[in-house]
Amino acid sequence: MKCHLCDTKGCSTGNPCSDFGSLELYSEEDLKLLRTASDVEALYYCTLNRLEEIMEFARRMNFTRLGIAFCVGFRDEAAMLGKILSEEFEVFSACCKVSSMKKDDVNAARRPWVGEVSCNPAEQARQLDESGSQLNIVLGLCVGHDSLFYRHSKAPVTTFVVKDRVLGHNPVAVLYSEYLRKNLKRRPEERVK
How far apart (Å, rounded) are the C-alpha atoms in residues 106 and 94? Predict the structure, then answer.
């Protein structure tokens, strides 16, 4: 499929170009997540910010234990998020460097400005799963590390913030700015010094 090339909007109006019988893809638990997400969208459309939506979704799912998987570069933000969520939920967290696994152990590139300790998203997921987290919230994990966290988390995962060090953690800016689009680094040079 190449839905990004479609200009008919058929699927969003109930007239899809193909009906795949998708309902069979969903377990009962999945359907509850889907219904709840749809309810939050419908009932609070354009009235709640992302944090408020996450909290309302957790309430409606009857989740009481939330996990935060965060990048150490977002330590201050994780503390603020944890404080807000702790007013209503039991909150657990795991930073990306949990267990201090070395980059040499995984044959990863090392540069002085990022240190020798590797991110450890599988361990983040395990720690939050062992805490009994019912919903995990990603806060600024690196590209790829977030993918591994999503893959390893047993609990459902939602993203609060994506990391973009260049665009102030607002990656969609590259799509809205003609200047940024024209100057995309198609084949970036590696930083060595």
Answer: 20
